[in-house]
Amino acid sequence: MPLVRKETKLAGLYIIEPLQFRDSRGYLWEVFNTDKWKSELGLDINVVQFNQSGSVRDVVRGLHFQFDPPMGKLMRVTKGAGFLVAVDIRVNSPTLGQWVGVEVSEENKLQVWADAGFARGFCALSDYLELQYLCTGTYNGKGESSFKWNDPEVGVKWPVEKPIVSDRDDSAQSFREWLARPEAQRFKI
């Protein structure tokens, strides 16, 4: 299967079908290749950090982002299934506040690329979800922020009936409160 970049309704947010090699022994999955991503997908990405998280069914995490330094993320699932979400937070974007959600699993091997300028979150659809993400910025706790996972203005439709949410995510600021902060101006198209 060749490397494929699928457009979404949000500029800068792509679904990636990775290069896979399969035979009777199993598969090899080329998760990321700087040269191929640049030449074949038109995405010039400098990965500087690699993260992994694990969550039990119905956990919702997000909606998080980092403004200093701005951080793009390539997200993929290695165990189970998850619903990965990205919300456009670029203040002058025609799609500001709009979101895309994609079901990603260890079976479908889809990946989600979201430029800096997107808040990201996910929920676990399987008994256990293992999510990995490659980041274009180094983590900076003083340069990160979030807004509430169920902000009515954004309206993410999480596919869980009884979400399990951290106190931090449940008490996060609103989307409007984030947009009123001077740091929000760092995200522009």
Characterize the structure shown.
The relative contact order is 0.24. 10% of the residues lie in helices and 41% in strands. The protein has 189 residues and is mainly beta. It starts with a strand and ends in a 9-residue tail after the last helix. It is globular and about 55 Å long. It has one domain (9-14, 46-181): Jelly Rolls. A hairpin with a 2-residue loop joins β3 and β4. It contains three helices and 13 strands.
Uncertain ranges: none
- What fold name goes in the CATH topology slot? Jelly Rolls
Corresponding CATH architecture: Sandwich
Q: How many domain modules? A: 1
Kindly, what is the distance between the CA atoms of the first and last residues, rounded to a whole number of angstroms? Answer: 32 Å
Number of strands: 13
Proportion of strand residues: 35-45%
Radius of gyration: 16 Å
State the major sheet: 6 strands, antiparallel
Average residue-wise pLDDT: 94
Q: How do the strands line up in the largest sheet?
A: 1-2-10-7-12-5
What's the CATH H-level superfamily name?
Jelly Rolls
Helix content: under 10%
Note the run of SSEs as H and E: EEEEHEEEEEEEEEHH
Query: Tell me, what's the shape?
Result: globular
